[in-house]
Amino acid sequence: MKNESDQERADRNFVELLQGARVAVTGVQVLFAFLLTVPFSTGFARMDQADRWLYYAALISAAVASICYIAPTAQHRVLFRQGRKETLVRRSNLYGIAGALALVVSMTTSTMFVIDYLFEATLAWVTAGLLAAFALWTWFGQAALDRQGEADPRDQSADGSSVSSSEDSRE
Prior knowledge:
This protein has helices at 6-37, 49-79, 85-118, 121-148, 166-170. By secondary structure, it is an all-alpha fold. Keywords: Membrane, Transmembrane, Transmembrane helix.
């Protein structure tokens, strides 16, 4: 935004990061809660060692995703009024990316775990691979291409030349 101070931009960016995390954290918490109940079900004892390792990967990655998505709020409390908002914004962005990667692992391994139990290992591997590829593409791949590719149409001046602001380069 024009005429926005560095502090105002950091405040706005932090609020935007937290809004994005709110969307993901609910799903992570539901998945994590479900995974915590699985070993107490009657069928879990019949699981083979490979399925137990899938479950382990799903559970731990859901815990990691939860930690990453909650970290910015906890750190904000610790750093409150310390003048470190820009540091917190940068760190929170990294936690958001790490949380999303952990969520991809948890969703993929959870799905693989269930499909392997219901059907067969081949279908589970294929489905998990497709889900992982889809998530990685929609969450990261397209955005990475946008960062490297064409300039945003809003950054084009009337004569078609690229216009960038120092504000955009810092977000």
